[in-house]
Amino acid sequence: MKTSLLLLSHSKEITDGLKKMIEQMQTSNDVSIYSLGGTVDNEIGSDPTKVVDAVNEAGQEDWFLVFADIGSAILNAEMAQDMLEEDQQERYYLVEAPLVEGAFAAAITASTTSDVQQVLSEAQNAGKKEWS
């Protein structure tokens, strides 16, 4: 099973750094990571067309897990979903999880299972801290 993690932030540096961290900690060929931070002009902001382009580039992936940080990045992730073909929309998951912890947990879990619900659950629970 193939999984694409789509990382959205207003900052390309944030998604580039997160992508690099995850790639160094997991080595599965079944997980692709796309850094989609910033605008197409590499300015602060986000752009739904970057998401659509990544989904179209991935093509054969079984599912797309979308992680966004705040505000318009979330709105643009939702807008991108509406811009996709119907079969792509069925494999597109907006993950309600912290960008860093959620994407990391999803990548590690997706490299060990083909159960998308388990991957989503691990991502959603990743940000919970139990400070003593």
From TrEMBL:
Q: Which GO terms describe its cellular component?
A: membrane
Q: What start and end residues bound the annotated signal peptide?
A: none
GO MF term list: phosphoenolpyruvate-glycerone phosphotransferase activity
Q: Among the record's GO biological process terms, what is one?
A: phosphoenolpyruvate-dependent sugar phosphotransferase system
Catalytic function, reaction form? dihydroxyacetone + phosphoenolpyruvate = dihydroxyacetone phosphate + pyruvate
The UniProt record lists the PTS EIIA type-4 domain at 2-131
Question: What's in the keyword line of the UniProt record?
Answer: Pyruvate, Transferase
What domain of life is recorded for the organism? Bacteria
Is Hydrolase one of the keywords? no
* Subunit and partners: Homodimer. The dihydroxyacetone kinase complex is composed of a homodimer of DhaM, a homodimer of DhaK and the subunit DhaL.
Q: What is this protein called?
A: phosphoenolpyruvate--glycerone phosphotransferase
